[in-house]
Amino acid sequence: MRVHVISDVHGRADALAAAGEGADALVCLGDLILFIDYADHGQGIFADLFGAERAAEFIGLRTAGRFDEARAMSARLWATLDGDPREHIERQVRAQYERLFAAMPAPAYLTYGNVDLPGLWADYARDGHRVLDGESVEIGGLRFGFVGGGLRTAYRTPYEISDEEYAAKVEAVGEVDVLCCHIPPAVPELLYDVVARRFERGSEATLELIRRTQPRYALFGHVHQPLHRRVRIGRTECVNVGHFRGRGVPFVLEW
């Protein structure tokens, strides 16, 4: 059995179309949307609406940890648009989801990332796309559990939830062979992004489940350039499957 696993697609519909080639199934760990591109300031929803120069300024404030200033700047820009800013965002997000789900191979098993809008996925998922969050499913004789979204941060991305709500989803998944999450377990070397030079948030609940149940694999994304891509916890191989927008190739899981 061969499964390809991707995360942090961030708009790469071109590479997504080939991500399932040679695989029995595709697993996608979320972050389909590209809101703002830290590498190319001219890409993403923010730049489409306000231009690359404003995107670069916004990124600079967030990178410096000046989140209140970044939010104030963003509010000023949104106020320049006609109508409700949420309508502009949803229109852009829907356009991306339409392209991305059209390119998504099947069969595919998906969960949400922290920048996704879960309420819109049902409008675009096709036959052969199964969305799971706090649920498990059998693939090729192994039990795969899925936990989507992220924990609350200063970035206030769309699908951030409380530690308690996240832990409840982890507990609902329970004992599985392969644990699939968008964010990593709370292990420092898996959370530090060496390019952004900051720690992202990881899940203590996920780490506790791994220690207690010892799945074969724990797979995740979220941290685009991690200090370590792989860490072993007991018999569990914890793997960051890679920044799909940057690399364009899936992680391969075979058994």
UniProtKB/TrEMBL annotation:
Looking at the record's lineage, which domain of life comes first? Bacteria
Under the heading InterPro entries, the entry gives:
Calcineurin-like_PHP, Metallo-depent_PP-like
Q: Please list which residues make up the signal peptide.
A: none
Taxonomy of origin reads: Bacteria, Bacillati, Actinomycetota, Actinomycetes, Streptosporangiales
One GO molecular function term of this record is:
hydrolase activity
Could you tell me what this protein is called? Metallophosphoesterase family protein
* Calcineurin-like phosphoesterase domain residues: 1-226
